Amino acid sequence: MSGTSPAGPRERLLVAGQQLFYARGASVGVDALLKDANVARRSLYEHFGGKDGLIEAVLRRAAEEDLAWYESALAAEAEPRDRLLGLFDRLDELVSNPDFRGCRYFATDLALAEPDHPAHAETASFRQRLRSLLVRELKATGHDRPEGAAEQLHLLIEGTLVMGATQDGRHPGHAARDLAAAILD
């Protein structure tokens, strides 16, 4: 027998959480999560201590996937400057997808008003790791202010993701690419 075993309750909760939190936001109800994951309420508390723990774990998992996406987008070009500019082309493709719902980290921070919610540490960690990736790329270009330029490029990335969520037919990645070129020059 060579079949794979079905995912356990923990994995099903992570998958359901990642899909539902992205599609409907962090305020999605526990009952919807349990139904989508096809698990008992007890599984949520055993594996994550509750919904807040699941949100935190989902963000941690999504961050790994999203950072891998950024690395892959950068790898599409050979030259450091082209890598950074090409990133905005990939972002424009991403936000043009009809399933795109905006930046999960921004949406989570807005949805969870409590400043001490553990999800905020995960969103901050993701942003710091993304900025570190940008600093690395800027150093490879020989940029004289890699930290400051990374902050500016990060702002353009966030703006592209926010504007892309409107799905209004514009191409925010193209405009952000033009601004990124000015930062790189």
UniProtKB/TrEMBL annotation:
Residues 7-66 form the HTH tetR-type domain. Residues 29-48 bind DNA. Transmembrane segments: none annotated. One of its GO terms (molecular function) is DNA binding. Pfam families: TetR_N. InterPro entries: Homeodomain-like_sf, HTH_TetR, Tet_transcr_reg_TetR-rel_C_sf. The keyword Heme does not apply. Keywords: DNA-binding, Transcription, Transcription regulation. This is TetR family transcriptional regulator. It comes from Luteipulveratus mongoliensis.
